[in-house]
From TrEMBL:
UniProt name for this protein: Diguanylate cyclase/phosphodiesterase with PAS/PAC sensor(S)
Span within the parent record: 571 to 847 of 847
Domain EAL: 22-276
Length: 277
């Protein structure tokens, strides 16, 4: 009986600790957003046909003053759960557009920027207007921006989602289906959604060289993309064998450590100039 009680209090302490940690992290994230302590890194996307720059993907980074770097895999789900993802995404959209306009002012021909959004962002019927305002603030065209969505959005039954997606698409902003092949992907959904780009998930790229079944699947994906006239981007390309296999299958664009990791804006600028891109 005594040990039972002891164990109970052990677990409840443990849970308190986790809950406290979470609350502290949530408060820290709220503060980081307010003080603009988040920043974006940018990863180049390379056209496999001619080696030109196709665009860059903006990825959020958070360096906590005491804890240090906290990866997106931790703070994005946290932001989604505690209602901060709206604010985070507004910030990411504005910052990415500001940066693109800034690069262009200084003579860098960056064709487009991609921003990751979460499923709940599309419940917000004001999102299309926010995007339109942000683009016009920086004198950018709708085609300068790509919005990355994940397959989880397809499971979203919120009635606003389809309307918001449709409005964003109607403006001429491109939609990219991120992590393609990992989620609940249904070809029927692909037909209904106004996407312009498919991003093959990096788990497929990782297994490409050693697994024939994976190669058969990636081949099927590029064929689907081509028949629907979508641009197909391979994520997580780390070596030239993967690059060659993807290129041979007809993949249009590749992104990964082989070319460059995601970099702070100034470092990406240097990288682009060095590679004459
Ligand atoms: P994602 O959008 O699929 O982004 C690609 C992830 O792969 C990034 O991880 C990137 O750093 C990583 N990566 C790039 N090249 C390679 C490679 O060659 N090999 C490997 N193994 N990984 C590579 P990161 O930056 O940690 O972001 C993780 C995820 O967090 C993103 O996946 C995205 O879903 C989410 N995320 C990041 N920033 C944001 C944001 O601003 N808003 C939202 N909603 N989600 C974000
Ligand atoms: Mg992405
Ligand atoms: Mg993603
Ligand atoms: Mg992805």
């Amino acid at each position: 009986k005594t040990s039972g009680r002891g164990r109970f209090s052990f677990f409840s302490n443990e849970m308190n600790l986790l809950a406290q940690e979470r609350l502290a992290l949530e408060a820290a994230l709220r503060e980081a957003l307010r003080k603009e302590q988040l920043h974006l890194h940018y990863q180049p996307q390379i056209d496999l046909k001619d080696g030109h720059l196709y665009g860059v993907e903006a990825l959020a980074r958070w360096t906590h003053p005491e804890i240090g770097n906290i990866p997106p895999i931790r703070f994005i789900p946290l932001a989604e759960e505690c209602g901060l993802i709206g604010e985070l995404s507004d910030w990411a959209l504005r910052e990415a557009c500001r940066q693109l306009a800034d690069w262009r002012k200084r003579g860098l021909a960056v064709p487009a920027v991609s921003v990751n959004l979460s499923a709940t962002n599309f419940h917000n019927l004001e999102l299309p207007q926010l995007i339109a305002d942000t683009l016009s603030t920086h004198a950018l065209a709708a085609s300068d921006l790509t919005v990355e969505i994940t397959e989880s959005l397809l499971m979203d039954t919120n009635p606003s989602t389809m309307k918001t997606l449709g409005d964003i698409h109607a403006q001429g902003v491109r939609l990219a289906m991120d992590d393609f092949g990992t989620g609940y992907s249904s070809l029927g959904y692909l037909r209904r959604l106004p996407v312009s780009e498919l991003k093959l998930d990096k788990s497929f790229v990782r297994d490409l060289a050693r697994d024939e079944a994976t190669r058969a699947l990636t081949n099927a994906v590029i064929r689907i993309g081509d028949s629907l006239r979508l641009t197909v981007v391979a994520e997580g390309v780390e070596d030239s064998t993967q690059q060659e296999l993807l290129k041979a299958q007809g993949y249009h664009v590749a992104q990964g450590y082989l070319f460059s990791p995601p970099l702070p804006a100034a470092e990406l600028e240097r990288w682009l100039r060095e590679h004459a891109l």
